[in-house]
Design goal:
297 residues, alpha+beta, endopeptidase fold (from Nostoc punctiforme), Muramoyl-pentapeptide Carboxypeptidase, domain 1, 2 domains, six-stranded antiparallel beta sheet, two-stranded antiparallel sheet, 10 helices
Length: 297
């Protein structure tokens, strides 16, 4: 596990080398894996005194997981969060994402995940997870009218969040995304959208899109109701077999790629016949279209 000083050194080196902001956030997030969750924390060093200021009855682990505050030890020596006799940092979920964004000189306002997401001035773009481009950005999990959790998508369908501790997780469960102002320009945001990995039992808009695409291609999912049941599973496996994929019924990156390629509208092609062309003109045609059928008049 890295210490707070080691992670700061990683950030400072990348800043000095002129690394892009999303790349810095990605590397710093990964370097924090293993650091502790403490409700209300926004990146202060994990110490008995800092933990004590956060203690509340609704989050007893703030005290019980600290060997000093719980009385198990008189100091931090040997604690998993005191590696190499140096401190790490502590966060809750929205504290972690806000702290990551501050590492590149940006800021998002809001005391909780819901207020962060609802503050439009924080974001250059936000929306449903099914529309999320493959970029470094915040992701949220909605429950009712509130956002109950948040994390940082670091690209390729990988999210680093702070829940129990800082950890690396996948896409299932996240419902919304938001790209902080100043992290990208519009031109830098790719058109490629991250698709969540789906399996039997999942539900939502992404499952409905999966069913609609499969039905369009002739793989019978029944009604596109957004519920990944047995009929959808059978259709997925059939599609995977016919496209040379492992027929495990799990719709991951490779299955999504084949499905999008098979179901997206194709560009129309045309047949052109030309007469009276010179050899040089024929050569130019062949450069553009190597399969051109050419013969002498």
């Amino acid at each position: 596990m890295n210490t707070a000083n080691q992670v700061t050194a990683i950030r400072d080196q990348m800043l000095a080398e002129g690394a892009k902001k999303p790349d810095i956030i990605r590397q710093v997030a990964l370097a924090c894996i293993g650091w502790p969750y403490v409700f209300g924390a926004w990146g202060e060093e994990c110490s008995p005194s800092n933990r004590k200021r956060r203690i509340r009855d609704s989050h007893p682990t703030i005290k019980s997981k600290c060997q000093v505050l719980s009385g198990r030890q008189s100091d931090c020596a040997g604690c998993q969060w005191y590696p190499q006799d140096e401190r790490v940092r502590m966060y809750d979920c929205r504290g972690f994402t806000a702290w990551l964004i501050r590492q590149v000189g940006l800021d998002i306002t809001g005391q909780g995940a819901t207020s962060q997401y609802n503050t439009a001035s924080n974001w250059m773009r936000r929306g449903k997870i099914s529309e999320m481009p493959d970029v470094v950005c915040c992701v949220f999990r909605q429950k009712g009218t509130s956002m109950e959790h948040t994390g940082m998508h670091i690209g390729g369908g990988v999210v680093v969040d702070c829940s129990v501790n800082v950890r690396s997780v996948g896409m299932p469960g996240w419902t919304h995304y938001a790209i902080p102002v100043g992290l990208y320009t519009e031109e830098e945001i790719p058109m490629v959208v991250v698709k969540p990995t789906l399996r039997k039992g999942d539900s939502g808009d992404s499952v409905k899109e999966l069913q609609e695409r499969l039905n369009e291609l002739g793989y019978d999912c029944g009604e596109a109701d957004g519920k990944f049941g047995s009929k959808t599973l059978t259709a997925v496996k059939e599609f995977q077999r016919k496209h040379g994929l492992t027929d495990d019924g799990v719709v991951g990156r490779l299955t999504w790629a084949e499905l999008v390629k098979a179901s997206d509208p194709k560009e129309p092609t045309y047949k052109v016949t030309c007469y009276g062309m010179t050899f040089e003109q024929v050569q130019k045609i062949r450069e553009i279209c190597p399969t051109a059928d050419v013969g002498k008049e």
